[in-house]
Every structure is written in C-alpha cells, then in structure tokens.
Design goal:
By secondary structure, this protein is α+β, with helices and mostly antiparallel strands. It has a domain of about 100 residues: Jelly Rolls (Sandwich). It has 2 helices and 11 strands. The strands form 2 sheets. Strands 1, 2, 3, 4, 6, 9 and 11 form a 7-stranded mixed sheet that branches. Strands 5-10-7-8 form a 4-stranded antiparallel sheet, with no helix packed on it. Strand 7 and strand 8 form a beta hairpin. The longest helix has about 60 residues. The chain starts with a helix and ends with a strand. About 20% of the residues have low confidence.
Length: about 230
C-alpha cells in the first residue's frame, strides 16, 4: 500500500513525463510548421524573382533596334503590352517604375520580388540645320543620329553631284542631286555631311537637314512582381 507521500511522488513523476511528452510533440509540430513555411517561401520567391527579372530584361530588349544597348524609351505600358513582353506575369500583381514614373501598376505586389536595373532613358529630340552652299560644303551634326532627312535645293547655276556621309557616298547623280532624300547614318559616331558641287567656288543654294537625336539620362528600372 502506497502512502500519501508515495502517491504524491508518483503523481509528480507522471506530470513530469506528461510535460516531456507534450514538449516533444509541440517541438515536433513547430518544426513541421516551420518546414512547411520555409518550403512555401522558397517555392514562391524564385517564381517572383524569375518573373520580375524576365519582365525587366524584356522591357529593355524591347527598345527600338536603332537604340544603343541598355537605352529604353520613355513610354507608358498597358496590361496587354506587359503580358506581351512577359506572359509569366499574366495573372500576377505587377508594378513597373522608371525613375520617378510609375509606368504600370496592377494590384499590390509589395509581397513579391523586386528587381532593380540601371538603364538610360531616351527622349527623342527633333533638330534642323541649313547648309548655305555658297559658303559651306560640309556640316557636322551636333548630335548623333541613325538617319538624316535632306532637302537639296540648288540654284539654277549649281549642280550638286555627290553627297557623302563621313566620306561614304550616299547620293550621286551626274546630272544633279536635288529634292528630298533620306540617308542612313550611325548613332555610334559623329556624322559629317559633305555636298560636292560641279563648281564649288560658284555654287549657290541650300540644303535643309533634319534629324532626330536621343537625349539620354541615367535612371533605374524597378520591377516588382508577386505571382
């Protein structure tokens, strides 16, 4: 027969064993829960980052072919254009920022992944110049461009036979070059136009030159996606 003191000790042992078992079960449960949470985060974050990286890269690659590398236009985006660039974000919440401008936002993607990419944002600028053939036969453009529009207007006593871009013949006619013409140039080097008349010393007339250059400014492209 167990006395009161013995029963008390037995009860204490039982309680201690129960606490040990409860602690073990609780610890195992927390470990499982933490494992599930980490697994879910690991599975979600790479998908978000992949989607954000894909959209950022394709936004930059979608710039006009004439633009230098890593130069992007200052443009707006629509849901259709975003999905066209990166179908992986079709059902995702998305935000695309270019410097201080928000180009596109759908939902709240703050719980997703954000990708930052340094770019140059380009703003087209129209420029014109006039060449007086009586005083000049060359013109060096003040800004780089990939195409120049010309209006050659010689007077009756003048025959412009050849037009050169950096010593490369782009227009030639023995009976005379006149009227409108479009010639290709390079954004990667300075452009010098030369107009060769039959008798340069007595040449008269004008050439109107127009072109579009790019004013570029460094900024940051920020893409946030939560799939």
């Amino acid at each position: 027969m167990i006395g009161g003191e013995g029963r008390g000790q037995a009860n204490l042992v039982a309680v201690a064993v129960a606490l040990v078992l409860l602690t073990s079960v609780l610890g195992a449960s927390l470990a499982v829960a933490e494992s599930v949470l980490v697994g879910a985060t690991t599975e979600r974050d790479p998908a978000d980052r992949h989607a954000a990286s894909t959209l950022a890269a394709r936004f930059v690659d979608d710039a006009p072919a004439s633009y230098p590398q890593n130069v992007v236009p200052n443009r707006s985006l629509t849901a259709g254009s975003v999905v066209s660039l990166a179908p992986v974000v079709e059902n995702a919440t998305v935000r695309v920022e270019l410097g201080e401008r928000t180009l596109f936002e759908r939902g709240d993607p703050s719980g997703g992944a954000t990708v930052h990419r340094g770019v140059l944002v380009a703003t087209p600028q129209s420029r014109t110049a006039t060449v007086d053939l009586a005083t000049n036969d060359t013109l060096t453009l003040s800004h780089r461009t990939d195409r120049v529009e010309l209006v050659v207007d010689p007077e009756a006593n003048t025959t412009v036979r050849t037009v050169r871009v950096n010593d490369r013949i782009v227009l030639h006619n023995e009976t005379g070059v006149s009227g409108e013409a479009s010639v290709a140039t390079s954004r990667f080097r300075e452009t010098e136009l030369t107009f060769e008349a039959e008798n340069q010393t007595t040449a008269n007339g004008t050439v109107e030159v127009s072109y579009t250059s790019l004013a570029v400014e460094p900024t940051t492209l920020v893409v946030t996606v939560d799939v």
